[in-house]
Amino acid sequence: MSDAGNRGGIAVKIRAITHGITLAYPVDEQAVKEAAGFNNNARKIFEDQGYEVQEPRITTNSWPEFLGHLSKNDLIRTLQNFEALCKKEGIEFTSIGTAKETKHMDVIPEIIQQTEGISTTITIVDDITGFNAGALQKAAQTIKAISETTEKGYGNFRFAAIANCPPDIPFYPASYHIGKRCFTLGLECSDLINRAFLDQKSFDSARNSLNRIFIEELRPLEDICMMIEDDTGVSFKGIDVSLAPSLEEHESIAYGFEKLGLNRFGEPGTLAIAAMVTSVLKSLPVRKSGYCGLMLPVLEDIGLAARCGDGLLDVQKLLAYSAVCGTGLDCVPLPGDVTEQELINILYDVASLSSKLDKPLSARLFPVPGKKAGEYTEFDSPFLTECKILDVK
Predict the structure, then answer these.
(1) Among 385, 379, 366, 281, which Cα is nearest to 327's?
(2) Does residue 317 sit in helix, strand or coil?
(3) Quick check: 36 and 56 in contact, CB under 8 A?
(4) Are 186 and 244 in contact (CB under 8 A)?
(5) pLDDT tens digits, residue range 305-325?
(6) What b-and-e string marks burial along 142-170, b requiring 16 or more CB atoms within 10 Å of the CB?
(7) End-to-end Cα, the chain, rounded Å
(8) Residue 45 contacts residue 228 (beta carbons within 8 Å)
């Protein structure tokens, strides 16, 4: 394991070490401190092996389970205290899980507005109750309300509508926890597709190259995680092998696809490459958890944003790619005057696709106040690139 960071001078990046814990009210501060301590120790272990780790995270059981009985003011105050405790222990970002009952959903815009790093979601489809039309409508209302009550609508970075998403996804905002303590890894590995597809002349050679590189990179990571599990007794649930991008141009998913020389991302051939990539990810012989698909977060990938600017991507194309590979509609900028009904229609498409294919999808939509389709965002965020706003017509 000692050469984990020395394979050609490049090692896969760890975006998140996500620790799942179950909380009750009042919040057990010691449980939070133990989870934070575990994450920070795990981070040091990975960094000592040469890996770059962006952030340790904590995800909890769904907040209505332990806070749903509180008044709005008490709920917000409790979450602010929880967030302050996490930050004191070195955890900047937390997820408090998902809401499934409509009676709990009206407070979510205020949760987002009154906190800095807490994520939450609304479940619109699950494997028990199926499709929830009331929750879907509330999710659309929530997206709209967050866009109007947070600066530039940026609060929607920490909210999503989720469909058939399993527990303990390491990526936010979809993450929620069920059961005993555990940890998962979320990766930032779009550099791997750029390496794998360089100078490849066929689909078969590209597939084989991608499979080989992922196995070489992930097996040492899995070994470290299993060692941590053995040493601590905290269950390792798996690695989300999803292809997640960075803001670096040379690590763009879009530009990685284009290294195969077929077309620009969004033109014919994109769907086929996406399906091939996902088939490789699904078959990797490592312990997996989460989406394990292809993430296409438009505002988090310079190449995707560029292809939006070129007019090659729209909401329907992005959703079509989700049918074969993706995690849904992620970080999609929309006009500020998008109506609640238009948001409902988009979420219906996401929910229907998830239900039909029985796959996890999420929708993280960004209506941008004061902006129209064709104009550009101005988030000025370290986590997002700027992008042309997509039409919903």
Answers:
(1) 281
(2) helix
(3) yes
(4) yes
(5) 999 999 999 999 999 998 887
(6) bbbbbbeebebbbbbbbbbbbbbbbbbbb
(7) 52
(8) yes
